[in-house]
Design a protein that fits this description.
alpha+beta, 75% helix, 6% strand, 5-stranded mixed β-sheet, 5 strands, Helix Hairpins, single chain
Length: 244
């Protein structure tokens, strides 16, 4: 295939634009925050499960405390009632029975209040654990929200950039013959498409070409489209190609 040296050099601009378009597409489809966001989703789910467990434990302790408070209230009411009966009693036998029951109720109330204090301590610990877990969850959620917002902004910016680069490419491609552009596109599926030949090295694959290949390229006419024997991209020759 033949193409003017100017057309061949224009392929370098197209190749650069294609590279930048590909970068923009990667930024659009795979924002840099995606990996951390995925991690945070898993972390948040685990933290939610732990919070559910801790909340359940706290609620159980609250229920236990309410039961003890109710039991204390029942015992206290019974003690008050028995004390009133004792004060009004005229029978020594009844008075003795009431005194015995009041002593038993006092011990029962003391035991219940001791248990109540123990449960109150456990409740304080359980509430502290829930609060700490909620703080962790809030921190994770805040980080996730911030990263998600930044990812959305980056995706929007990459989308706009990709669209602008595509317009630029279309404008540049208008100056290239359809045949050369088609050949470039075909080669670009498996290589850089087009690259400079600099001091005997293909800038597409970074391989120094053998002298036999360089001699063949050296003998080729300026308008002959030559390719890298290693990667297959179109080689664009300049004064820096090392062919003189």
């Amino acid at each position: 295939m033949n193409a003017s040296p100017e057309n061949q050099r224009t392929l370098l601009d197209i190749a650069d634009l294609d590279r930048r378009i590909a970068q923009a597409e990667r930024a659009r489809t795979k924002p840099s925050q995606a990996g951390r966001i995925t991690e945070l989703v898993a972390i948040r789910q685990e933290q939610l499960r732990e919070l559910t467990t801790l909340t359940g434990t706290r609620d159980d302790v609250r229920t236990e405390l309410k039961r003890l408070e109710s039991d204390v209230a029942v015992v206290e009411a019974r003690r008050n009632r028995d004390a009133e009966r004792l004060a009004a009693s005229t029978s020594s036998k009844d008075a003795q029975a009431l005194e015995h029951e009041l002593a038993s109720l006092a011990r029962r109330q003391s035991d219940l209040e001791d248990a109540e204090l123990d449960v109150m301590g456990r409740l304080e610990e359980a509430e502290a654990a829930v609060a700490a877990q909620q703080a962790l969850l809030e921190t994770t959620t805040a980080e996730g929200s911030a990263l998600t917002a930044q990812a959305k902004a980056d995706v929007a910016a990459a989308t706009d950039l990709g669209a602008q680069l595509a317009r630029d490419r279309a404008a540049v491609a208008e100056g290239v013959s359809p045949e050369l552009l088609a050949e470039y596109s075909r080669r670009a599926t498996n290589s850089a498409g087009a690259a400079l030949l600099t001091r005997g090295t293909c800038e597409g694959c970074r391989i120094l070409l053998p002298s036999t290949d360089l001699n063949d390229i050296r003998r080729a006419a300026d308008d002959l489209v030559v390719s890298c024997p290693e990667c297959g991209c179109i080689l664009v020759r300049t004064e820096e190609s090392g062919l003189a």
